[in-house]
Description:
mainly beta, eleven-stranded mixed β-sheet, five-stranded antiparallel β-sheet, 39% strand, elongated, disordered N terminus
Amino acid sequence: MSKPLAPTLRMLPSTTVRKRRELPLRGRVLVSKGAVVASDTIVAEAYRDGELRIVRAAEDLGVVPADVEKYLRFSIGDVVRRGDIIAEIHGLWGLLKTHVLSPIDGSIEFVSSATGHIGVRGPKNRITLTAYLGGVIAEVDPDRGVVVEAHASFVQGIFGVGGEHVGTLAMLDVPIHREVTAADIPINAKNAVLVGGHSPSIEALRLAASRGAVGFVTGSIDDATLKEYVGYDIGVAITGDEPVPMTLIVTEGFGVIPMNSRVEGILRAVSGKIVSINGATQVRAGAVRPEIIGAPSTAVPGEDMGARDEISSEGLRIGGVVRIIRVPYFGQRAVILDLPRGLERIETGASARVARLRLDLDGSEVTVPRANLEIV
């Protein structure tokens, strides 16, 4: 038996989940340690400077730059509204007037005697940070963010697109071994995270989004359907910022792969309850997996979670089931046939420890670096 460091997707019906929530810039935390928060509670805020617009006052007024300040109707720091006259000059014994207007709501930030320009700064933009996960504030960094802790179910997928959403988990009336069609999408899916089946059609995805679903969790997806849903070929390196109306998470991989029955059981146990999801994925160093975090639930009948965790901690072993997390076999499940000792040269020319595998998809045998595997 070999004991390399092999990752594994987490599928836990009940565990302690800790989520660090950080502002993109320094701001202010609005909650205290020990506070109980909901997923939509605003826990921190920050303010980003508004848009800066330049008014070419000297050119518009027809004066030299050093004289612009003489014709100002506001002082630096004064609040102005869009369309306000911020500088004005009277010509021909006061009969003709030339003026410049503020292009936006904001305040006068500067007047340059060198260029004759006036800077108008728009209002500050408020940035808010929600808890994302209902729970307790376990840590506070006063000007950056918090750590939220909760006892909940936790399931990781292998790949996803789209960012954070919170919604009510709803199981589709679709067996894990059947493809999802448009006919399977409920009429009322507003704020729902739909779960079930595999290989949804593009019509099913679009209909779910149009009916208000915020998330869709399924076993697998065809790469052509994924491309059509996102609108472009995104690859599999880093995701999470795609302009999609509904976060999509696949638990097994690409192609036609049924959802793992254990995953389906854990998610079914929290059907009808609020869950937090995030499709962000990074398959390279510092791997990030899409996630579904739900309310606490009892263990899945017939499964000993402790025994499962103990097996996973042993690492790779002959006969074990793994998932490949790098191209060209990304997302495919396989059985380990052999774990050769020592290093072998791989296609890149580097030497690495490898595993001989039999792919579930077509039964072919392949050799893959062990670093490209995760335990199922």
